[in-house]
Amino acid sequence: MKKEAKTDLDALIVGAGVAGLFMLYRLRSRGFKARVYEAGGDVGGTWYWNRYPGARCDTESVQYSYQFSEELQQDWEWSERYASQPEILRYVEHVAERFDLRRDVVFNTRIVSAVFDEEASRWVVETDGGERISATFCVMATGCLSSPNFPAFEGLDGFDGPVFHTGLWPHEKVDFSGKRVGVIGTGSSAMQSIPIIAREADDVFVFQRTAHFAVPAHNGPINEERVREVKANYPQIRARAKRSATGFDQTFGEKEALKVSEEEREREFEKRWAHGGLPFLSAFTDLRYSEEANRMAGEFVRNKIREIVKDPETAELLCPTTVIGCKRLCVITEYFEAYNRPNVHLVDVSESPIERITPEGVVTGGRVYDIDMLILATGFDAMTGTLLRIDIRGRGGRTLQDKWKEGPRTYLGLMTAGFPNMFTITGPGSPSVLTNMQTSIDHHVEWIGACLVYLRENGMKSIEASMEAEDAWVAHNNEETAKTIRYKCTSWYLGANIPGKPRVFMPYIAGFDVYSKKCAQIVAAGYEGFRLIPRETDPVDTLVGHSGDS
Ligand code: NA7
Description:
There is one protein chain. Helix content is 31%, strand content 17%. By secondary structure, the chain is of the alpha/beta class. The strands form five sheets. Strands 1, 2, 3, 4, 5, 6, 17 and 18 form an eight-stranded mixed beta sheet that branches.
């Protein structure tokens, strides 16, 4: 028999990463009783799991930080321009400690199901330990990249040595010395870890299916003058970030690459290459829309790779042929240089895929690559993977798996019709992974926090996206995506890295600035497109904003 559900919570939050912890803080500060359930052994989310060597944020540390507490942002000292995983984890732990958050987090506990009880208007959530908890609201702070992708390589289980996934890295140091290490994948995780592994290992074999674009981080000790300036101007910096398309305070080029001279174009690319990081993609306004402009930016990077990598054949293999910015641009430290080492070997698996794994190693192109240790840097079932692994059932017992079988459908990436009182932080349909995650998380947490206060103050028991508003939002998303050239190549944004996953461009592409303005307008119009149901009344008479759905 199922245990009786505990019913003491206003809100149950899934995930104690950057988003879930802030959600807890915000709801607590607004007088709600909230609790977080976390599969990991401590706080940190992404930064708890991704402990592979070289793991580092691709957002500058001074901008990859919470903004809800002025004291916190003034007190915390980052040591590097781009913080490493251990430092970010220490920061998140510090936040948990400083605001006494851990007392409301249940660790080592995975949520396996969440079922909406329509009569009680509450979510009944079950843990992997069989505990059942009921809460009025359920907030999924489950992260965008939290379900590691394990490709179905034949023979993987029979491999003789240890196998690690970068997204589930062990807590203990992995010793590569004297080892022949195989790395499958060449996305950010691989690019960050390969140069470090190569310093220790005897040999590193990198199995590359697609060459990814990357720009240098130019990481180093943080510039004290910059820190002083940032700390003196945090309100303005945060405000500028919120007014930008990317959620970063950065310089955006205002010209079109196709409308300037070759010299000016090269100068701008050089300047951005020398500055380092993701702002490279904002050099010109047409890089995301014009294939020709994009090709020019791509060619600039390819020429850099050709300059860095000494062996011309290897250099050519490392040169991406896709659209730059289509797959997530990687921000690297000495990745291409690693191929100048005699112990790093690039294996092209684009034409002849990995056939199988034997006890000795990796088989491709009819050859066995003998290795002692295998690293899967094979990415994630992004944005929907974690949500769809939970048995989520909304009105009429409809599962989220069923509702999203053709791809995710949401209103603003915050809610999905038929699943009242369930929110997704940085869910599909919101700018999320195309922005500074901290800006997007901050926005969603504040939006949800204010929404719950509004419901309480107005005597509402539930809120739900209307089907009509959701359909319109999905259509708007698709229209915006179709305008860009990002849609034309394979990436995890499109679900293309997971066999059988519907091809839907998941993040909202029109920019954080446009998006957050829309969210504010919707609230100002009385939560337009949402259905709010008062306590103790007939739902049919109480439609707010857009009316009616199925
Ligand atoms: P990514 O960027 O998804 O990279 C995964 C890599 O694994 C990529 O190079 C894939 O090749 C490769 N891959 C996946 N499956 C296979 C198979 N079956 N055979 C060969 N190669 C394969 O994940 P990361 O962890 O590096 O980065 C994720 C995000 O974290 C990143 O975007 C940042 O936002 C932070 P493909 O390119 O699909 O051909």
